[in-house]
Design a protein that fits this description.
The protein has 180 residues and is mostly helical. Helices cover 56% and strands 6% of the residues. The chain has a domain of 117 residues: Orthogonal Bundle (hpI Integrase, Chain A). A hairpin with a 6-residue loop joins β1 and β2.
Length: 180
């Protein structure tokens, strides 16, 4: 498995949104939901329309079995409302074109993200990039590693900082400033 990075450039996020929005509204919502909720892709793909009609997304994480409740912010609410207005509550939010009511697969989600990333010149991208991007920008805005550690259910702040790429940023910066 390759190590994936968060998207650290807001312009690249903007252009990925633009690229996906011009092609497929479902794929745009996948990206916007991923970077605004901070869920693992396995939990994101299991969401149904009824799960996002409220102010909060409530779910049991597949990996940990823990209950989680996440408030839907204004950016995501706008994208959701536009997308689900004519959808049935039982439909998967990220519904596949195959089958009657199946969610897209993890590999389909990866292909969607990879294609958009290639368009903006990014590599080291995977489905975890969405969650890491959420974490990276949440940390940049609030500087609260303890809160982010709780959101991600990590056992230490060091793990959280390494996971979202802050430790790598710090190492890169010190190497830039280092020279004998």
């Amino acid at each position: 498995m390759n190590f994936v990075q968060p998207i650290r450039d807001l312009d690249q996020i903007h252009y990925i949104k633009k690229y996906l929005g011009e092609r497929n509204k479902r794929n745009l919502l996948l990206f916007v939901a991923g970077i605004n909720l901070g869920l693992r892709i396995s939990d994101l793909l299991e969401l149904r329309v009824k799960d996002v009609r409220k102010q909060y997304v409530s779910l049991r994480e597949q990996k940990t079995g823990k209950e989680k409740r996440i408030k839907i912010n204004k950016t995501l609410r706008k994208a959701i409302d536009q997308y689900i207005k004519d959808k049935d509550d039982q439909e998967y939010l990220f519904k596949s074109r195959e089958g009657l009511n199946k969610a897209i697969s993890r590999s389909s989600a990866y292909n969607i993200l990879r294609e958009a990333a290639e368009y903006v010149g990014l590599d080291s991208i995977g489905t975890h990039t969405l969650r890491k991007t959420f974490g990276y920008w949440h940390y940049k805005k609030f500087k609260d590693v303890a809160l982010l550690q709780e959101i991600f259910n990590h056992s230490s702040p060091d793990i959280t900082l390494r996971y979202i790429g802050i430790t790598q940023d710090t190492m890169d910066r010190t190497m830039d400033d280092f020279g004998l």
